[in-house]
Amino acid sequence: MPLPVSDVDVQPFSTQDEWLPAQGFVGIQGMPGTAKGCRLRLEKLAGLKPAIKRKRTGHKGYEYHVSAATMSLKTESEHGKDVFTFLSEDDEQLNLWVPLLKTMSPQSRKVLLQQALALLAQDLSNTPDSQA
């Protein structure tokens, strides 16, 4: 039985064998029987967990992490709707961050995270509660 999307632990991946194009998922239990069906399902899953999708190197299109085969879309309406509402209505600039982070190198992501944490610590130290 596939796991709900929110229960699957998606880590940064490096092993080439763990990534497949959509047609590589055809025939895997729980996945559609056609490449187009797999691609559509994988795109929905990638909308919820962007880390399972990456641009194929040296080819057109995308490839997906094998962990996507164990994910379930049953919770999509519960989790996905909230995520997309949050991204599109509450903070339009947040929509820009995901594509930017996906294109950055791991070292650049680390530097950006350190800068963000330093700014957050500075903001928290300047709150009215801390100045009392």
TrEMBL record:
| The HTH Mu-type domain, residue ranges | 16-85
Entry's InterPro entries?
DNA-bd_dom_put_sf (IPR009061), Mu-type_HTH (IPR003314), WH-like_DNA-bd_sf (IPR036388)
A GO MF annotation of the entry reads: DNA binding
Can you say what this protein is called?
HTH Mu-type domain-containing protein
